């Protein structure tokens, strides 16, 4: 056989197998080829150009060209797929006769992870927990695991960043690992995890995969050499996870589903699209073992209600008769009559809702209501439409008083709307770190982004009008750049687990108390410290009061942050100049665009335009002016920002000698004479007003 050329977008792997290959030319579309998902090391995470998109490869395919009457066409020589898969499965069984029920190596939990011991988790999960240094369960995990592992339904409410993903993920993985039968040709879907956004869905599956990949690397470790590994038959994953989200190839996602997966993490919109053409998937969802709604309240906000409701309807019992059929875990081939466990997790869930879940007013009536045309529109409706099999779902509410995580310091800055840019710039220079800035609109981000660029601040945008790939890329860059800014809409407010976000800044105030809590939840995660700041203009104060009031709090509880006003004046000049440059740039772009359009229109109508109109003389003058502005900004940016009372020439004198700070390396790199400190240390206590003068640390 000729050495086949590499297919676009795929890697060809040659394998030394004894499989008998029958060659047929019978595919003519790339979609029809037997694609396989490429296993990638998890440490790649969202890095790289592909982000965490799944890669696929195809084996044993040769591209050939056929001359037909219609010209030259491309076709594929493909090994008979059915035969190949059968042989491959045979081979796995032959080479590792015990693969189906491979006994996991025992793990000494008692000594190595005593705090996890009582949960009796599968050894491979314990091994990963150990390798990740997760020495104890977080409070929500400790509270939820006993119920979830014993088959109960759980509604878990816990602060942001408290480890909710594993609170439901570990019980699912534990059960699937314990009952796994990897040699089966097609897996049946066992767990469906629904998440409100693509990013969250991708993050959840990446989190679960971390545990499964560790399983496989443990299994691989016996292979003696790299060469052996390369030629060894690839065993199927013990438990497989797939992600179905919008913004990525739906054909590819359908192919992955066709091959069969154990756990599906999905956003409702894309999943419902696929279910509509896939009866087999609908049937599999009817027979799920686990249903999870992650960030349940957000689903409603994200406008997923109709799709979500349709998906959930598939999980309702049709009659009482099939409610109590116990699931036979020993025999995976048997369809599960009714073993569904439901987990709902969220950082916020009102007490009313919790009571309603307890009362369980739902099952069949709501399904019918829905059909009769009263679509659900609130989280209340959604939860009441769920068919908990558990007569009393366990509600675990660990949400902190007023929604505030104990390791979070909150603050505010009161300023005019027009001054927000300069206050933000001040904050970013004064407290360098990883800052997530929330804006209310995409337009706001588009305006602010070029300003940050002109002011040499590293910022990345994140909003719904960016392509998925770009969103992931920007998230990656933000994650990997310690001093950077993510300018985001509320798309980034929930669920995203970005390690070490130092500051959350509400450039515009959030729409609701929930949004405030979730935005803040991007910092102070996993018991780390964090800081949030509300930028509040006079016309926003009333809303802030109402927002905090609904959390049972008062505006005066949130301390103001002290500002060095002398420094602020210097920064104002830079910001104003940057704005001027940006406005001029915008005008130039628009003028060029208009001229181009007029020229094309004139050409099409075969008329001549006034040469004055087409002359770019005026534009040239403007360009010169603009260059001058840029040079001026460059000069300003190059000048050190010196705090009042500081002498750079005589660092041991002046009203604020800076020599000690310089020697100790405790100085702020952008502001001379200003001590390096964390934003949380510069809060004015309680109800104090903003100082007229700059605070001691940074001025005279
Ligand atoms: N037992 C543990 N010990 C230490 N770290 C943990 C533990 N469990 C989870 N984590 C880490 O804590 C971080 C937050 O976890 P996770 O994203 O599950 O939080 P969450 O409660 O779902 O947050 P959100 O409500 O914002 O979605 C993750 O980086 C995760 O790896």
From TrEMBL:
Q: Which InterPro entries match?
A: DEAD/DEAH_box_helicase_dom, DEAD_box_RNA_helicase, Helicase_ATP-bd, Helicase_C-like, P-loop_NTPase, RNA-helicase_DEAD-box_CS, RNA_helicase_DEAD_Q_motif
GO CC terms in record: cytosol; nucleus
Which segments constitute the DEAD-box RNA helicase Q domain?
A: 114-142
- Which keywords, in A-to-Z order, does the entry hold? ATP-binding, Helicase, Hydrolase, Nucleotide-binding, Nucleus, Ribosome biogenesis, RNA-binding
Q: Where in the cell is it found?
A: Nucleus
Per the record, the major location class is nucleus
Q: Where is the composition biased (Basic residues)?
A: 686-700
| Family according to the record | Belongs to the DEAD box helicase family.
| The protein's name | RNA helicase
Organism, as annotated:
Favolaschia claudopus
